[in-house]
Structures are given as C-alpha cells and as structure tokens.
C-alpha cells in the first residue's frame, strides 16, 4: 500500500493525480496507508491535491494532458502560461454547453408559468373575479411549485447573463472566468429548483388519486438530487472514511465542512418549502 515508484509516489499520490475518487476512498479507509508520505519532490498527496485544484488563484485543469507529472513543481511563469492556454479553450466549451442548459431551463420554466398544474377556473364560472385563474391557487404545494419554478427561472436567467459576459472576448479573461464559475453555481441551484418543481407539481396532480406513484416519484427524484449534490456526498464519504481510520478531529472538520456545503448548495429547498408556509400564515 505504501510502496513508492521511482518518483517516490505511492498509490495514494496516483489516485489523487488521476482524480480516481473510488480508489482514493478505498485507500483512505485502510489504516495501513500512510497519508503524509512524501514523494521525491517532498509532496504529500494533500500537496498534490492542492496543486491540482487551486493554483495561483485559479482552478487548475485536471486533464491528464495538462496536469504536471508526478512530483513536478514548475516555476510560476510556466505554470501560469500553461493554465492560461488551457483555461481559454475550456472557457469556450463551458460557455457553449452552459448556455444551452441555461436557455433550456429559462424556456421550460417560462412555459410552466402558463400551464399550471390543476388547470384553470372556467370562463363560464359564476365567480367572475377568479375566471382564468389556477384552480389550486393558495394551497401549500401549489405555492411551493410556483416559488420553485420562479426561482429556477430567475437563477437560470442570471446564469444566461453571466454566460453572455463570459463569452464576450474583449473583456478581461479573469472577469470572464469569474462569470463562467458564477454561471455554474447559478445553474446548479436552478436545476435543483426544477427538480423540486417537478416533485411538488406531481404531488399536486396525483396525490389524491395515485399516492404510490407519487411516493415512487419522490424516491427517484431524491436519488437524482443526491447525484447532482456530488460535492456534498463526497465530503460525507470522506468524513466516514476518517472516522473508520480513527481520525476523529479531522472527521469533525470535514463533517462540518460537508454540512456547510450542503446548506449552501440546498438553500433553494429551504426557500421553496418554508416560504409557502409563511405566506399561508398571513
């Protein structure tokens, strides 16, 4: 487990370098694996992880074609030049891919605003004031659907504007990169809002006639939301691995970090579920 190659790298060094999360966790759980063993350049696996994820204030590309070889630590100027070239190409791909996703969410959520679940009050209804309004307006889950759909529309719209700036080449590259990263954060939360809107919309339509179908939708949707919360469950698994190793203090630190990331990533859920209850109370 702690054998080293000619560059002094262990299996843990290699797992970090190629970003193999499964192998990394398997090695981390094994108490015989030394976490702080250094390679010939004096780098621990943690040092390599820091070099790959954050360098000179920018996200370091993790492609095998651009990551420095095991144990390499090039000078700042050559590193920055390599990062700049890779980042400009990556930014163009990010701009194209994210733009498609953002515009699709804007389109879908805009259309959902005018196709509310439950239908609308008939134009022949005796209550003239509510003709053409949603039948289920004012119920908790209907309000939750509207809020989730609105949040998804706003967040994806903001992401679209950020991507417009990210793709505008006359602007400073660092600013464009910041806009692209901001768009990614906004899109993550927008997708979560779309997921919640789908779940509560399904509940509104089927809860009284097909409760088992609704339960299945809840389970499948929960799995999907767990999948897109990659960073949260990765930190949770790391906390578990550290507990198995007996590294209590480190496990507590990572555990608190995972809770913080979960709260930051899932704040739309709190808004969607709490705001309707507050509105009904007034």
TrEMBL record:
Pfam families: PGG. Gene3D superfamilies: Ankyrin repeat-containing domain. Keywords: ANK repeat, Membrane, Repeat, Transmembrane, Transmembrane helix. It is found in: Membrane. The keyword Oxidoreductase does not apply. It is a multi-pass membrane protein. The chain crosses the membrane at residues 15-35, 94-120, 140-168, 189-210, 216-244, 256-279. It comes from the Eukaryota. Residues 92-204 form the PGG domain. One of its GO terms (cellular component) is plasma membrane. This is PGG domain-containing protein. It comes from Leersia perrieri. The lineage of its organism: Eukaryota, Viridiplantae, Streptophyta, Embryophyta, Tracheophyta.
């Amino acid at each position: 487990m702690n054998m080293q190659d000619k560059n002094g790298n262990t299996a843990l060094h290699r797992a970090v370098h190629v970003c193999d999360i499964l192998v990394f966790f398997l090695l981390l759980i094994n108490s015989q694996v030394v976490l702080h063993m250094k390679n010939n350049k004096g780098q621990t696996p943690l040092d390599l992880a820091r070099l790959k994820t954050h360098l000179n204030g920018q996200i370091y590309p993790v492609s095998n074609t651009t990551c420095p070889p095991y144990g390499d630590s090039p000078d700042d100027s050559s590193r920055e030049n390599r990062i700049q070239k890779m980042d400009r190409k990556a930014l163009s791909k990010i701009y194209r891919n994210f733009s498609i996703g953002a515009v699709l969410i804007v389109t879908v959520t805009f259309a959902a605003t005018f196709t509310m679940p439950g239908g609308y009050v008939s134009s022949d209804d005796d209550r003239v004031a509510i003709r053409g309004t949603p039948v289920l307006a004012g119920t908790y889950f209907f309000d939750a659907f509207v809020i989730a759909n609105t949040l998804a529309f706003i967040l994806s719209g903001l992401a679209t504007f950020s991507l417009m700036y990210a793709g505008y080449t006359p602007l400073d590259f660092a600013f464009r990169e910041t806009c692209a990263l901001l768009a990614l954060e906004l899109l993550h939360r927008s997708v979560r809002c779309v997921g919640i809107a789908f779940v509560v919309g399904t509940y509104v339509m089927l809860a009284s006639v097909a409760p088992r179908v609704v339960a299945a939708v809840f389970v499948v949707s929960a799995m999907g939301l767990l999948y897109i919360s990659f960073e949260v469950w990765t930190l949770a698994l790391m906390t578990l691995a550290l507990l198995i190793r007996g590294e209590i203090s480190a496990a507590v630190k990572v555990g608190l970090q995972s809770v913080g990331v979960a709260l930051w990533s899932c704040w739309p859920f709190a808004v969607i579920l709490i705001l309707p209850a507050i509105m009904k109370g007034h």
